[in-house]
Structure formats: C-alpha cells, structure tokens
Prior knowledge:
Chain A has about 475 residues and is of the alpha/beta class. Chain A has helices at about 10-20, 25-40, 50-65, 105-115, 155-165, 180-185, 220-230, 275-290, 310-325, 340-355, 355-370, 375-395, 425-430, 460-475, and strands at about 45, 75-80, 120-125, 170-175, 190-195, 215-220, 265, 295-300, 400-405, 435-445, 450-455. The interface between A and B is large, with 45 and 29 residues.
Amino acid sequence: MDEILTVSVKDLRIKILSGEVKSVDAVKACYKRIKEVEPKVKAFLKLNEEQALKHAAASDKKIKSGVKCGILEGIPIAIKDNIMIKGESMTSASKYLENYVSPYDAAVIEKLKEAGAVFIGRTNMDEFAMGGSTETSAYQKTANPWDIERIPGGSSGGSAVAVSSAMAPFALGSDTGGSIRQPAGFTGIVGYKPSYGLISRYGVCALASSFDQIGSFSKNVYDTALLVSVIAGKDYRDPVCEPTEQTDYTAGLENPDTLKNLKIGIPKELSDYDTDGEILKSFEGVIKNLQLYGAEIVEISAPSYKYVPALYKVIMCAEVSANIATFDGIRYGYRSPNGISLNDEYAKSRSQSLGYEVKKRILFGTYVLGAKNYYRCYHQAQRVRTLLINDLNKALSECDFIFSPATLQMPVKFGEYLPEECDIFLIAANLGGFPGITVPCSFVKSHMPMGVHFMGKRFSDAKLFQAASAFERISGFDISKYPKI
Amino acid sequence: MSNYETVVGLEVHMQINTKSKVFCECSTEFGAEPNSNTCVICTSQPGAIPILNKKAVEAIIKTGLALNFTVNKQCTFARKQYFYPDVPKNYQITQSEPPLCSNGKLAIAVDGKEKVINLTRIHLEEDAGKLVHEIGSRKLDYSLLDLNRASVGLMELVTEPELSSPQEALEFLTELRTIVRYIGASECSMEEGKMRCDVNVSVRPNGQKDLGTRVEIKNMNSISGVRDAIAYETERQIEVLSRGGKLVQETRLWEAEEGITKSMRSKEGALDYRYFPEPDLVPFNLPDSFIEELRAQVPELPKARKARLIKECALSEYDADFLTSSKQIADYYEEAVNAAKNKELAAKPLANWISTELSGKLNASGKEISESPVSSKDLSKLVSLILDGTISGKIAKTVFEEMYEKSVDPESVIKEKGLVQISDESAIIKICEEAIGESTKAVAEFKAGKERAIGAIVGLVMKKSKGQANPQIVNKILIEKLKG
C-alpha cells in the first residue's frame, strides 16, 4: 500500500502544504487503492476520479504559488451519499432518488469546499440511512474489510469502510441512532457524532430530524477534531444549530495529564444486557488500564436506558413517516409510469421505489401518530425521552464522561440480525443530543476490532476529543494496521 | 317568520403581508411566472430545513393586539399531515397549541346596534401551492402545478359560532378586513386569494341551546359570496328540517354562478392529520419586551380614529366614515389638515376635496391614494388659498385639474396662469360700471323689483374678469351702484 495512505490527515496535511507530497499523488493513491479493494468491499456508490484529480491539481498549483490555502487544501475525503454536493447525484441509496442531482451544497460541503478538501466519491449507506448494516441500500451491500462475510455496520457503512480500508483518509457520515459510531466500532476506526446543534444539517437528506447529525470517520481523534474545526459552527439555515465560541477543536489534544484529571462513569446498566463475553473481558481490561493512568472510575446509573430501543423506534419512525412523505412521485424523483389515479400514482411510485425497511418504518411511524395511538405511543415516548435526558444529565453531573463498549455484540454475517439493545449506549447520545465518539481499543475474536464509546455533556465536544485522544494514546491499538484484503 | 335561527362561525385565512415566504426567502409577489418564486425549501427537496420568518410572527401579534386577543408567549409548530400534490412536503407546518393569539373580540354594527363577536384564535400556518386543471377552454388530461404560493405565510382567524345572519357575516368580514389592512398585516384582497374564508353554517329551532348539524362551505373568495352562501344554506337547511329530513355533517362548495351550494365530501370519514411537533423548528418563548414593542406599533384603529376626527375636525359621520375607511386615506387627510395655516377652517373643506374631487379622479384612473399625483401638502395649500381669498372656489377647481395632471403645486399653477382673484375694489368698480352700462335690460328689471336679475350682471362681470373678480365684492358693489 502507498505510504501516503498510512499516514494520518494531520501528517498528510503538513506534507501537502509543505509541497513534500502532491495532492494529485494523494488522490491517485486513493484511487489506486480503491481499484484494488473496492470490488471486494463495495463501499462507494459513485467515484469522480477525473474531477477529483482536476481539483487536486488546482490545489497543488495554489500551494506552489503561495496563495492562501484552505485548512484541508488538497486532502481527499469521501462523502456519504445523503449529503448534497451541487451538481452531483445524491441518491441516499434509494431508487427513488436514482436520477436526483443536488441543486445546492450542504452547509458542511460549502465549508469543506472553502477549506480546499477534494471529494473523491459518494459512499454507500442504508437506504435513507434506515438500517444498521448497510444491507438495505437499493444498490449494493458493503462488506466489513476485516471479514468480508460480515456487515460493516450502518447506516454509514460505506464511509466507515472507505476509511478503515484506507481508500480515503477520512469521511463524512450521518448519525441518527449510532449510524457513524457503530460502523466505526465494527471496522476499527474513530467515529464521531457531535452535540445536536453543533454542525449544520442544512443539505443533509433528513431521516429523523430531531436526532440527525453530521459526523466523521477518521483514523485518529486528532483528524476528527481537525475536520470538526472546519465544519462546526452556527448556520442560520438550520434553526437548531447553535452558535459556539470554539473554533479550534484540536487544542489540548496532546496534554499528557488529561487522564489524571478525568472522572469516568461506567453505567451500572451495562450488566443488564447480554454482552459478548470477549467484549466484556476486553472492556474490563480497558478500565484497569485507564485507572493505571490515573483516571478515576465511578459507577453511574441511568435506569431509563432500558427504554432506549422502544422510545427511539417510536419517535424516529414518527419523524420518518413525515420526512419520507415528500417522496410522492409528483415533483421529482421516481414516478411510476402506470398510476391510474392520484392515490394510485402515490401508492405505485412509493411501492416501486422505496425499500422494505423504509416501508416498514413509514407504516410503524404512521401507526404511532394515528389519533388512536398518539398519546399511548408517540406522546408517551416523548415523555420517556425527557426522563432519559434527565437521567443522563444527572449521571453526567457525577462524572466527565459516560464510558461503555461501543456495541455490545460483534458484527454479524450478512442476513443475520443484531439484538436491538446492541447499540443502546450510542442511541442514548442521539436521544439526548449529547456528543459521542467511538475509539478502537483492541482486537477480539479472530482479529475483529472492537471500540469503546465516550459520551459527554451537550457541547462538551472539545473536551470529548481531549479525553478520547488521551485514551487513544494508552490503548495500544495500532492505527496504521489495516485489514488484509 | 321562520321558527329557526341561523348560527354561523367563520375561519378566515389571510395572507400575511411579508415580502418573503414564512419558511424560506422566496418572494411572495403576486402574479409572477409559475414556479419562479420557489426554492429547495418551499419545494421540499432533500436536505431543506424551514427557517421561520420573524416578520410573519410580528404581523400576527399586531393583529391579535388590535383585536383584543391574549398573546401566548410560547410559540410551537406542528406537522399536519395529508397527501396532496400542491402540498410539497405532504404535510403542512402549522402552529400547534397554543395558537399565537387566543380569546379576542371584534365589535360590529348590526341595525345601528353594536354586537361583539368572540374570536377563538389566530394561528400561523403555511399556504399550499396551486393546481391548474384547465388552461383557457382546453380541458387537460393532466394537471399543472404552481408552487409560487407554497409556504407563503397565512394567519388563520377562527370565530366562535356567534354570527346569526348573512348580513352580520358581511359586516364582520368588512370590519375585520378594514382593521387588518389598517395594521398592514395583510392586504386582504380576496380577488388575489389573499383573504379566503371557510364558513360553518347550522340552523336550530328558536330557543334551542344545542347547535344543529353543521355544514362547512370551503374556500369562499368574496364577501358578498359569503353572505349569499349563508342565505342559501340557511334556507336549504330549514327546508330539509321543516319537511322532517335530516342534515348530514359535510363540506360543501359555493357555486357562485348558480347561487347554490353543492356537496363536496361527507365528514364521516374524518381525516387523521397525525399532528406531531415539528422537530426542525425549536419551540421558543416571546419576550414581553417584544410584545410590548409590537403593541406600540399598532396604529389607532378606524373606529377610534373616526370618533376623534368627528370631535377634532367637526366632520359629519359620513365624511368621517369615508376618511377612515383606509389608513392611507386617513393619514393623507390628517397630514393635509396639519399642514393647513388655519386647521379649524381647513378641516371641513379638505374632507370635501378628498372625498369628491380627489377620490373621483383617483377612482377614474384606478389609483390608490398613496399614488396620488397631488400631495397632501399641496392640497392643503390649495384649500388655504381659497380660505384666504387668493382664489375663488371656482378657480380652485381649474387649479386642481392642473395640479392633478402635472403633479405641481397650486402656487405655480396660479402664477403661470395668472389666476389670482381680484379683490381690489377700484378695479372691480370699473368692471362693474362697464357691465351695468351693457346690461340695460337687467338693470331695468332689477330696478322694477326683480332682484334676481342681478345674476346676469354678476355673470357678465365674472366673464369680463375671466372669473378672477372676488364674487362677494362684485355683489356688494353692484347692489350699491344699482340701489344708490
């Protein structure tokens, strides 16, 4: 493998800006690797080599001429296929949007363009980000590079695999209920979901609007912090996006004393679930290690963790049923050629273009919002959501971070199902709007990676990076180790 | 007389008078090329997120304050879901409980007596687009969609079922429209669809407390239509009940040409809108200071203004009614009065000039008073010139013509045309003597006791002076000469 692909974005950036490595060569290295690996893992829905090389050449010229460069000038990045890039197709891995071309740039894309990043391709995902395996894509299934018979996780599985198999230095994904952090955990990389409202959702195809956030995949925490410094911040086009004073999220990452000052909360509820034995064993080792480096470990409790799967499903599906209603075949997207009346047109356009998982969620969401069920299901779920947020805020007042294994099970083989409580510690972050990051920690079970998850108070993202970075230094996980495929 | 009484409640939709739509920055201009005022947000494309237009909220609160509503400080939005091609999201964003304004009141005049109608609520919502099923005379086998109106801000005002005749509904809508226009919250032009009305009509035997079966008549677009539809529906319902029939709760349409209502759909299979909180628009609280700021911006309303004008300017009821029928006219009038040298004397003639000469000309050229070529200041000057005797009322009409045509001030017209009134007695005596000399017949008649004959001599004087002689002085001198 080309050496360029094994370095972090932090180092690659220095090499490119100093002229030691050309952006064109970095981009070429990505495509070379893609050509070797992509047929086996199928992480990309679309590649734009020609355009990317053109952009890279322009970046190189800019660097050479001494013109002021962007923060990510000439650095390749992969983008999940539910984020708008003007003039490019955006399918959300659905047949419905097969011919849809984005008329505008998402806010994060505008910022990345300004920073000079090079878009190398659109990554595969679960259809409209519905799923936890990247198996529900209307186009292809993405494989886990550590074992191609297994799922990479989802819904941002394509982006996870692009980074974990070194086809791209980093990638954007979206996280509604662990959709970044779960596949990052399954593929041995860093996955980050920001505080709700830190990064603009403008231009991201909505799944469940009150949970959705844009986040990142990278090889290490520093690279994530660097990317977040570029894409975070107030955007008037997303009313939930809040202004923050922080502009540089990479500050303080190298502090050797971070762990000595940390109080890390382990949820008591972890023992309520059927967790994979090896994950549990490994996690216990991690805790000992943290203590060894001076972190204080405390037990915390959030009794309403047990409601997480149910209340997430109710609220998420309710929002899905409304958000997907716009795809009716009338104004754009797939239109059935054989509708014979208005309602028939709707029904046929939707049944012919939307996948099973999407339909299932629409039906469920429609059910829980129905006049007869609203108070029993939806309203009740919103109340429990408040209960959970109160529980978690209380727990977070007793510690700096809630710490858990990223997932309670290892990735399953295609067609198999993970138990729904597998991701509860990830989903809890979405329900409360808390920031969360998964960091790889070790290999278990015939060399599959496993990750751990830090969740912090809302808008404590900068501090979260410092803790995750400190953990990364002591974990002993070799980030330059790539799957042999 | 009928043994039944009519019960009417109204739901009035008024397009909020903002330059941009309620959840995006698109223009709300009327009559633009179809689909030219659209963007990714109002066509609901992937990744679009609504952003609330603050001005729309302000307009509703001002309306609420003017109509004695309680303003609710909490502002939340919900999605109201139904599939229809002209609803791009397939749900409508509307304000959920509480509405921005609840429990208002509006007084109307019924047969010279005042009746207060209780108002339930005003809330904010977005409009849908428009389907075009036919163009010209050619029936299409497809429909066209114009989304220019989609996501334009609407305020929906709901009344209690307290109106009890077609005439009351007409009075109510007229009064409401005047007030809302005064505030500038909506243009309320029904022909442009900026005010639309759903009418709920039921009848019940006199004295019965419970409401009868209600029929909803949708999307009325003229005030007289509302009146006629209620009249028709009242008769129809009484007729059904009198012959022992039963009414069904349903939605009907008003067929203006035939003058009848027709069944559109029965209410039995009521739609389930599956309301739930709009996750993209975070609920927020309106600070008291914000509401107070808006309260200060609510202008004096037509009724109060009318009473004040009658008192301050000694106007007739009729004049005051006309002058306060729109804020623009009233503003114009008061500016003119305030500019006059002698406000007390000028008040009445200015009212006359505005209600007759000026509005006559404006109507003829289809202009609003805000587009008047004669400014309030210039009209005021004209009246002052009459009052101080510089020109006669008759000359003033000529001067006004010029002012209107050329948009110039009265002094320059008078100067250019040499129209100053002659009040110099010696000059007038000379003309009078000439005229007496030339009017032998009239002089003889006058001296024989026929006093009216003087009119002919006055006419001659005026003719000789090209209308510039002061008529009062002319009269005085002629009488002196003839009697003396």
